[in-house]
Amino acid sequence: MTRFGYACISDLLGVTTSRTCRLTSATPDRLRELIDINLTALMTILEHNRAHGWGLFRIGSGVIPFGSHSINMLEWDAEFAPQLAAIGTFALRHDMRLSMHPGQYTIINSPNPDVRRAAVAELAYAARFLDALGLPPAHKLVLHVGGVYGDKPAALARFAEEANRLPDAVRRRLVVENDDRHYTLADVLAISEQTGLPVVFDNLHDRLHPSPEPPEVLLPRVFATWGGQHGAPKVHFSSQATGQRPGKHAEFADPDEFRAVLDLCGRHGAFDLMLEAKAKDTALRAVLAAIESAAAT
What we know:
Blueprint: E1 3-7, E2 9-10, E3 15-16, H1 28-52, E4 56-59, H2 76-79, H3 81-93, E5 97-100, H4 113-132, E6 141-144, H5 152-164, H6 168-171, E7 174-177, H7 185-195, E8 199-202, H8 203-208, H9 215-224, E9 234-237, H10 255-266, E10 272-275, H11 280-296
Parallel strand pairs: 1-4, 1-10, 4-5, 6-7, 7-8, 8-9, 9-10
Antiparallel strand pairs: 2-3
């Protein structure tokens, strides 16, 4: 059975998991206050999701403010151990799958070693957070390949090399996603062959930057990168925002397109689907209701 979810913020509740502050205000006490607020918000969202039957959720990278920055020297995983354990236990008890998606500056294939070091630190922090929840490796960290830097084969090779020497705590959670500009689904499948990383299929990215072969040909290979400790394949769905730059997510999901992706992916086995829409859970509720209504007629 497909689990559905959304990212970071509950629009219906008006709750986010990433309350933060300015770097200049990031005192230990302020950081503790924000961590408590964010963890409380995360549990509130998970309880809300359970009530709606939504089993997938992406936690905002800012759940621990400045989690990979030297300003945050807190032993937050020890200080907040009871809250973290309660969140993880709740997720596992209700078959929820959590993930994180470090931001656009987390680039492990950059030619700049300082950028790579910062990216590894961000990934290590995110893995530390999921570990602190007590979650198994099927709860993932999603990453894009990064830039081309004038030499795509070299950039691909650099990603594979850097991925293969990441700490085990990161590698066991890491998955790689196709993007809308540089790296196609075929490209990330080639990376998977060199690294063993599972591949996330993103429908909008594939439409904007397609592989030589269509997704119906590549999806069996994509789904085969999952299984075992990695869990069910993950799929990202979004609709293009009308009149906006290519790749910008729409406020809501197009029901016909959503149903088509469900049908396409469903031919290849069970999977989980993350809706990437500006209206978050409002959009998820709307598109699932539309699908259910269409099925009943």
